[in-house]
Structure prediction request, 117 residues.
Amino acid sequence: MPHPPGDAAEQSRSDGLQNLLALAVALLADERGISIEQVRERLWRPPPLIDAPSSGPRLLRLKGLKAKIGFSEAMIYRWVAAGTFPKPQKIGYGSVWLESDIDAWIAARLAEREDRQ
Prediction:
């Protein structure tokens, strides 16, 4: 019969796995002649960015676009409908924006702001 989550048996298994991982890291460090910290740095690198191609135009999905410009999805699509914001490009089932178009839009907004001041 399975043990309920959080019980002593599950904690013991978790501790055992952590000890096994620590031993594996130590053995790898010893085998390679490097420190345990160097092994950890090599093993736990952040994952590569999916939306960041190595060459060619950079594409932004809606989440990345919202993070870049700081406006909501509703506002972005309102501007697209009004013709004051770059239209998304269809790729497969999704939509993306060219980062260069967004950068140009931002630059134009900043220039407008400077002209008004």
